[in-house]
TrEMBL record, chain A:
Gene3D superfamilies attached to this UniProt entry: P-loop containing nucleotide triphosphate hydrolases
UniProt protein name: Similar to Saccharomyces cerevisiae YOR089C VPS21 Rab family GTPase required for endocytic transport and for sorting of vacuolar hydrolases
InterPro entries: P-loop_NTPase (IPR027417), Small_GTP-bd (IPR005225), Small_GTPase (IPR001806)
GO molecular function: GTP binding; GTPase activity
SUPFAM superfamilies to which the protein is assigned, alphabetical: P-loop containing nucleoside triphosphate hydrolases
Sorted UniProt keywords: Hydrolase, Nucleotide-binding
Record flagged with keyword Hydrolase: yes
TrEMBL record, chain B:
Protein name according to UniProt: Similar to Saccharomyces cerevisiae YOR070C GYP1 Cis-golgi GTPase-activating protein (GAP) for the Rab family members Ypt1p (In vivo) and for Ypt1p, Sec4p, Ypt7p, and Ypt51p (In vitro)
Biased composition (Low complexity): 21-59, 73-87, 129-141, 606-619
Recorded GO MF terms: GTPase activator activity
Localization per record: Golgi apparatus, Golgi stack
Originating organism: Maudiozyma saulgeensis
Start-end of Polar residues biased regions: 60-72, 97-128, 216-231, 552-568, 588-604
Region described as Disordered: spans on this chain: 1-141, 209-239, 552-619
Coiled coil: none
GO CC field: Golgi stack
Length: 211, 695
């Protein structure tokens, strides 16, 4: 028990082609590819990181961005403890979509869900700042109002990617500590599924379920 | 045990025969001929479909012939030449004789080869092709208890049928299919009570494909030819025989088709000493021969005919279409080109013009651009098949952009949905080969069309691709409209199917909280295109286009097409009436009894209806009931169950990760063909059981 593992179920949401899959690819494989096939349905990936002597295992559902697939999203965020809402700093439309996702998450998802607002593709701005179409202040304002973590990232260069996940990991109650707080017995929720956001003390195995 | 040892013997003997198919020999030949005439007529003669493949995967039991002997002796002799010559194409390997003779020796060679391939798969279904793949799991799971019960029931049933067909066998084609309709009526009556009837029922349409086959599908033959008491599932047969044959055989892959078997019985021992080189040469000659044979077969159907026999074409195409023929055959199968060759040119001219006018209109000033759609497509084009150089060329981007955009705005109910950008590419790539010099056809994936195509040709390519995509998507409209009900229904059907076929796997998924939609959504949305390499996808589409009837598509029919394909009009179950039954309405309760009722009704109709509709042209006779979505579910089931054993040892994460990246990189056409054959078998067993699942 010296190094207990906490599983965090995390979902990525955001408009098509903002770089959700690329963020995950960078985080999981430290890799990048310019033209990735559009995600269909959702993709599942995992990554372990160490945070303060704890091992945190991210179980990531990377959802498809196109509107047509949006009806699948609840299935993936319903049990998530964390969400990345991603937009493209060069695409104002994608920020509008991000607002919608934040709203939907607050309404539909787990109340304790940790949400990070992520403005991706800042590498483009390094070449030409005029490409920026979503001001940092605007995004920070939204993050403040809604209680979100906020990051600007580049999956291409790797900027801030691990920070996003570490930031989320630090916000999630870790397993060892959780036990001290005797925070048990909360697994039963409105859903027949196990609600992991309230049950960081749930066993590792349970974390593999129902996403 | 008697049965098995017999099989082993025959297996060995046949292996010898294989290497020396040109040399004739004595009593063995006679006995083999006897048995293989029979099973050849049973598999290739009666079923257009996977014929030799289904025997591979299912029966593959050399006792087939023995068992059938008494039943089939008569007609197999009378019909032999006819049947075999006509249907040898369905033997994927074609004619293996070194000589080109089509006489009975040739037939025998083909048959013997067929047996060989069968035996190959019996002895080592795994090793023959790709050890990892086929030794996998699936085979052990492939036969659920339910399936064997079915077979037993069917076994009894087919006794009657056989006599029946034997009786009818000498009748000509049209009589034959009429008879079929009658018999199908008969068995449709008790559809819901009798599983074997369900199977018969399914088999009904098949004989109609075969112009005088003996009226039973390979499936039913295989089914009944397996002695149910021994429960010779593929695996058990495989393992029992495999163990008795040297391990040499097992480790020799497909590359060694003529293995030296140390403990062969005796015969042709001298020939066995032929050098490896000679054998290799011989094999190459044979392979070349079989390819030529196949090409000739397609030529015969397509060229110099006024009306192309689509029925024959479908039958032949199921097992793969030679590259040079693929563009035109796809256009025919999908119903873009009319079967009447005299109308083809004018139709192409008109459709191509229509497309180009559509573009002009769409991109004219008065037509406002649908910016989000345009933009979405623009984003996705460079992300389409990013690993294939062909799709990085600017001219290809432009073509695909126009095709997809025009399709999207013409189909506002669905609009552009990701995945459609995948589906357009097999058409584009295949039709592109039409305009490339022969030397470039094999390298189409790295060839810039700009270097070889004139502007006109590029336009034609684009237009043809557009129309064929349109026809194709019409069959699966519900996959892309709001809520994607077609896909949800398919995923649901897949899970129910797996529950029936492979309960262990189903339960394991349940225990691990794996939901089918988590991995199967993409399988449906992109028709498994993301799971396979492009060349295997294209091969798969040969079968898809052959298997699924354009009649299941809806009202693409232009006046021209109505006149060339009157079946669409006259069919008692027009797409309008069948579609809801196939797919359900968007919010239809999947368990609605309504849909199952419709299904059975449809079956009855299709079994009974074709009479009279197509007297003028038997090629327009209804081919099958299969819809694209439906067949695809069976392919997905076969694909999933292939990994069953491995999956059952994995946890949630392992399962999902595995299924997102299945190890199919090295799949060859042979692997795909095995998969399609398995799907076909499952379909033949379960297709009409949907009413049972959904209750």
């Amino acid at each position: 028990m010296s190094n207990p593992i906490t599983s965090i179920k995390l979902v990525l949401l955001g408009e098509a082609a903002v770089g959700k899959s690329s963020i995950v690819l960078r985080f999981v494989s430290n890799d990048f590819s310019e033209n990735k096939e559009p995600t269909i349905g959702a993709a599942f990936l995992t990554q372990r990181v160490n945070i303060n002597d704890h091992t945190v295992k991210f179980e990531i559902w990377d959802t498809a961005g196109q509107e047509r697939f949006a009806s699948l999203a609840p299935m993936y965020y319903r049990n998530a403890q964390a969400a990345l809402v991603v937009y493209d700093v060069t695409k104002p439309q994608s920020f509008i979509k991000a607002r919608h996702w934040v709203k939907e998450l607050h309404e539909q998802a787990n109340k304790n869900i940790i949400i990070a607002l992520v403005g991706n593709k800042v590498d483009i701005l390094e070449e030409n700042e005029e490409e920026r179409k979503v001001e940092r202040e605007e995004a920070e304002k939204l993050a403040d109002e809604e209680g979100l973590l906020f990051f600007e990232t580049s999956a291409k260069t790797g900027t801030n990617i691990s920070e996003v996940f570490l930031g989320i990991g630090e916000k999630i109650p870790l397993k060892g500590l959780e036990n001290e707080h005797a925070n048990g017995g909360l697994n039963v929720t409105e859903d027949q599924r196990v609600n992991l956001a309230n049950t960081a003390n749930a066993s590792e195995n349970a974390s593999a379920c129902s996403c | 045990m008697g049965v098995r040892s017999t099989s082993q013997e025959i297996t060995r003997e046949t292996k010898e025969r294989r290497s020396h198919s040109s040399s004739s020999s004595t009593s063995l030949v006679t006995s083999l001929m006897k048995s293989w005439r029979i099973s050849s007529s049973s598999s290739s003669g009666s079923s257009s479909k996977p014929s030799n493949k289904s025997s591979q995967s299912f029966s593959g039991n050399p006792t087939t012939g023995t068992y059938n002997d008494t039943m089939y002796n008569n007609h197999s002799h009378t019909n032999d030449n006819n049947t075999n010559q006509q249907h040898r194409p369905s033997n994927e390997h074609g004619l293996y004789s070194l000589s080109t003779a089509n006489n009975s020796d040739g037939n025998f060679d083909a048959m013997s080869k067929q047996q060989n391939s069968t035996n190959k798969s019996i002895t080592s279904p795994a090793n023959t092709y790709s050890p990892l793949r086929y030794s996998s799991p699936s085979s052990s799971q492939i036969e659920s208890p339910r399936a064997s019960v079915l077979r037993q029931q069917h076994y009894k049933h087919s006794h009657h049928n056989q006599l029946y067909y034997q009786h009818n066998n000498s009748s000509n084609i049209s009589e034959h299919s009429t008879t079929h309709k009658k018999s199908s009526d008969k068995y449709f009556e008790d559809l819901d009570e009798d599983w074997s009837a369900v199977i018969d029922n399914y088999n009904m349409p098949i004989p109609m494909l075969t112009n005088g086959g003996n009226g039973k599908s390979s499936v039913s033959h295989n089914t009944q030819s397996n002695d149910p008491k021994n429960n010779l599932s593929r695996t058990s047969t495989a393992s029992s025989i495999a163990t008795s044959i040297t391990s040499t055989t097992l480790t020799q892959g497909q590359s060694l088709q003529y293995p030296q078997l140390p403990n062969l019985n005796t015969m042709d021992a001298i020939d066995l000493q032929k050098s490896q080189e000679e054998i290799e040469n011989e094999r190459e000659v044979q392979e070349l021969n079989s390819i030529m044979q196949r090409i000739t077969k397609f030529d015969n159907i397509i060229k110099g005919k006024h009306i192309i026999n689509l029925q024959e074409l479908r039958q032949l195409s199921w097992n793969g279409i030679p590259k040079p023929h693929r563009p035109i055959v796809w256009k025919l199968l999908i119903g873009y080109l009319p079967a009447n060759t005299k109308r083809q040119e004018s139709l192409l001219k008109r459709k191509r013009q229509e497309y180009s006018e559509g573009l002009k209109h769409t991109f004219s000033d008065e037509h406002s651009r649908d910016i989000p759609t345009w933009h979405q497509i623009e984003i996705d084009i460079p992300r389409t098949n990013p690993h294939i150089p062909l799709y990085q060329f600017k001219s290809v981007h432009d073509s695909l952009q126009r095709i997809l955009y025009l399709w999207a705005i013409r189909h506002p109910a669905s609009g552009y949905v990701q995945g459609i950008n995948d589906l357009v590419t097999p058409f584009f790539q295949t039709f592109l080969t039409e305009y490339l010099p022969p030397s470039k056809i094999d390298t189409v994936e790295v060839t810039d069309p700009n270097s070889y195509l004139t502007e006109d040709q590029k336009e034609h390519l684009e237009a043809d691709t557009f129309w064929c995509l349109t026809k194709f998507l019409e069959q699966i409209t519900d996959n892309y409209i709001h809520g994607q009900p077609g896909i949800l229904k398919q995923v649901k059907n897949l899970s129910q199917l797996v529950k029936r076929i492979d309960l262990d796997l189903y339960k394991h998924f349940e225990n691990e909280h794996v939901e089918f939609i988590q991995f199967a959504f993409r399988w449906m949305n992109c028709l498994l295109m993301r799971e396979f390499q492009m060349d295997t996808v294209i091969r798969m589409w040969d079968t898809y286009l052959a298997e699924t009837s354009p009649e299941t598509t809806s009202s693409f029919a232009t006046p021209n097409q109505l006149s060339t394909n009157n079946d669409v009009l006259l069919s008692p179950h027009t797409p309008v009436s069948r579609k809801p039954a196939m797919f359900g309405t968007p919010n239809a309760d999947l368990t609605s009894p309504m849909s199952s009722t419709n299904r059975s009704n449809m079956g009855v109709q299709s079994g009974a209806s074709p009479a009279g509709v197509s007297s003028s042209d038997d090629s327009s006779t209804r081919f099958s009931n299969t819809s694209l979505n439906e067949f695809h579910v069976f392919v997905c089931a076969a694909f999933l169950i292939k990994w069953s054993d491995a999956l059952c040892d994995m946890d949630f994460q392992g399962i999902i990760t595995f299924l997102q990246n299945p190890p199919t990189k090295d799949w060859t056409e042979t692997d795909i063909e095995m998969l399609l054959s398995e799907a076909y078998i499952w379909q033949s067993l379960y297709k009409d059981a949907t009413s049972h699942w959904l209750k």
